[in-house]
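FYI - complex with cytidine-5'-monophosphate, inputs then prediction.
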Amino acid sequence: MFDKKNSDISIIIPAGGSGERLKNFLNGENKQFSKINDKMILEIVIERLSKIIDFREFIIAFPSFFDENFEIESKKQYFLSKFPFLKIIPGGKTRAESVSFALDASDFCDGKVLVHDAVRPFFHKNSVKNLIEISKTKKNVILAVKSKDTIREFFENCSIKTLDREKIFLVQTPQIFDIQTLKKAYLYSKNNNFFPTDDAGALEYIGEKVFLCEGDYDNFKITTRADFVLAKIIINKNFTENL
Ligand code: C5P
């Protein structure tokens, strides 16, 4: 729900990836823009998130070359007409850079920012609400699930050790942060030539605590062919209505 007056949450979706791993399977289409039935994955994500969360601004980082690329430019126009509340900006070379560009484009320097991947459409409503609730007392909170598999460390194809599964969590989004602290973390990382793989990494780098909120296994990131096939089944069976 778009409620500039009452919300203190900015939403950022880094959607600037080129999805190289799936491109052949999707006939050259970026995965966030590929369609399941009649909707693009990013469209499903925006629809579901904007219904669940009261937000004050909603920023999306698109692939950086959209000015020169007719396809991406026309998608930008499509998204702006369907979701007039969006601010669409050019993304960066990495996910972290896309998030940091979106933070630069934010109109706010206090309150919260909720970051969510463009290709994770199956987040649970209750988990998102839980995450936001926890963020009222803890500055930085991320969704994660316990690893279902044994995690081993290898060196040159040789197993070195088994990690303690009880302590291993697979990180998901949405993640919610104090916007001022995240901006500071990205600035500090940039000034020190540190390249975090995600926002929590940037925060840890400046010594900030990042707390966990237990997520759901359904909330997978569409990365492989099998993920895409599974996503189709979930949508065709209308499972999203129960999430
Ligand atoms: O590539 P991967 O699936 O890990 O990307 C996770 C998220 O980060 C996706 O939403 C993707 O579009 C985004 N991303 C981005 N800018 C990049 C690379 C990835 O916004 N340069």
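The radius of gyration is 18 Å. The chain has one domain: 9-236.
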